[in-house]
Input
Amino acid sequence: MAAKPGRVGKIRTKSAAKKRIRRTGGGNLAIKKVGHKHLLLQKSKRQKAKASKPLMLAKGDSSRMEKLISF
Output
């Protein structure tokens, strides 16, 4: 369905991004690392510990992700 002439469509946050990315207290963006949901018995303690900590996004990635969650 197309927008009516002279009207601008709403700008929306990407639902997938809002479920996966969060903003930290310092204003950085953080995501959860993969590999901490199942098959945990065969993974080492080190693997599980590393996967449980959040991953801070790099500046280049952050600027792209800002556009997805800024609304």
